[in-house]
Amino acid sequence: xxxxxxxxxxxxxxxxxxxxxxxxxxxxxxxxxxxxxxxxxxxxxxxxxxxxxxxxxxxxxxxxxxxxxxxxxxxxxxxxxxxxxxx
Length: 87
Known about the structure:
By secondary structure, the protein is mostly beta strands. It contains 1 helix and 4 strands; from the N terminus they run βββαβ. A hairpin with a 4-residue loop joins β2 (26-31) and β3.
């Protein structure tokens, strides 16, 4: 069975040093332009990992991703109005 995973956005000042974040979890994406890292880690180790991450000198801010809380099941209660606006 797969463990529960939690996503985090870690704002960094140095991208080369941000490679060290791989020891906390799986690095999904690194933005060179905006200097952030999308990181996924096991939910049971988040508290201790966040404390260790915040102590690193190149980490500016750590934000939790709310992607798991966004509803992904949609219902078609309302009529589709796009066919009325077609050219």
